Structure formats: structure tokens, C-alpha cells
Amino acid sequence: MKELVELIAQALVDQPEKVVVTQIEGEQTTVLELKVAPEDLGKVIGKQGRTARAIRLILGAAGMKLKRRFNLEIIEK
Amino acid sequence: MENQEKNDDLPVAPDVEEAPEFKGKNLEDAILHAEHKLKLPRTEFEYEVVTEKTRLFGLGKEVVIRARVKRFAKNGDLTAFLDRLMNVFPLELTYEIKTKEDISFVIFGGEDKQILLWKDGVLLLAIQHLLNKISDRKVQVDCEFFRKRKEKSLRDYTLDVAHRVADSGRNEILDLMNPYERRIVHIAANQVPGITSESLGEGFLKRVKIFPLNKRTR
Fold first, then answer.
1. Is the Cβ pair B126, A12 closer than 8 Å?
2. ipTM, two decimals
3. Claim to verify: residue B105 and residue B192 sit in the same structural domain
């Protein structure tokens, strides 16, 4: 699932080389931490969080299929 | 997974081989003219000056340019992204891209398309939002005639409300809707004689008020 978030984030930002995704496995939930360049933060969040919400929805759908919960955390450095 | 780019069903924006000519009072004017007619920014076509002449009696100049649309892989960015997405996305989906004028239509299919339509298509719209960010063209997504069905049900619902308002003379306010949905509502509501509509509020989502045109209500 890490690759999925990486792919989407890299497509959205201006500095794709600075996209870092860390996957942390929990018991029922997988947390995906997304770090991007500070200037790109707005690009992955979007107006009123629309883009972030869209990414979370896509993760949610993937989770439905894989029967696992995925959580996206966008980390501010 | 079968991914193909099909262009045969919809009329495709012609790859302008013949170069149309545009006139203007000066070069800038001619380019503006070309941008307007071709509906493309100047970065997407090349031009050459055909004639540059001073009109009779020295009343200004006339510049004629010939513009040629730059050819580049249509939807290249979209296809590249979608192919990679399909590889890492656990849902079994296929897609097809159709092009019409300046809009790219991405039509999804495949085993898991039901998940795309889940919760009134939120996922489909989320994908559309991302594709619009990624592509430099406008992107509309669809699946199983989702759009057509949704438009029809929204139109029917609006007509119901509008007729109810016409009968009762009382205003009705609909739920929050996005601009695309509001457009459908406005068009449908205004089809009913004596009824009109307006949007209320601020932001991306607004409510629509449907009300009788003249205030001489019963």
C-alpha cells in the first residue's frame, strides 16, 4: 500500500524525490506516514483538505478489498 | 488487465495538420485570436507569420499568422499514471480513455467496479479529483453510466420538487451540492413554468433554493 500512496503523492507534488512514505503495521490498522517537501504540503492536502480526503478514500477502498484498515497521516516536518 | 486508448466513439479534436490562419492588428492580437479560436494556450501551438502589411491609407497594420497545433502524446500523463495506479491498487479495474475536445473521459470497468460506485460514487469522484490535479487536461470519470443515471435521478428529483413548489407556492431548499450537480438542478427547475432557483451560501458546496417566480403566492 506504500507504493500506492507514493505513486499518488509523487504525481501531485513538484518535488517527487522528496516524497517519503513509511508504513507502520498495527494489529488491525496500517498507518501510512506521508512526508513531502514543505512547499508541497498544500498540494497533497488540497483546498479544504479535498485532495487528502481523496487519497484517504482510495485507501479506504483498497482496505475494503484487502479487509484491512489503512490510515493516512500527513506529517509536517 | 486490458488498457486501451480508444478514440473512435466520440468525435476527436482533430490533429490539425492543415494550419489555419489568424489575423490581427499586430502579432499579439493575432496570437490572441488564435488562442481564442483554437481554445489552446499559446504554448500548445506553433505559429509562423505569413504576412505583415500596412493597410491602405496607413490605417493600422495587419498581421496574419499560421498556427499549427503541437502534436504530443494525448493523455500521455494520464495513461502513465493510470497504468502505474492499476499495478499498485488492489482493486481489479480496467480503464479506457476517450477524448473529446479538451476533456479526457476515463471510463472504468472491471470486476471491482461496484466498489467505485460505493456510497454514491464518492470513490469515483475522488479519483476524478486526483486525475484532474495530475493531468493538464480536464478529466471526467465514469463507470457503468454512473453519470447518466445520477443526472437523470437528480433531474427527476428536481422536477418533483419544482412541481411541488409550483403547487404549494412555498420555497424549498435542497441539500448541499457541488457545482456540477447544481447546474443540473438549475436547468431542471427552470423548466417548470413560474419556478426558478438560486444557490445559497459560500464555498464549493452550496444549497439550492427552488421558489416561485412571482411572490403573489396563494
1. no
2. 0.92
3. no
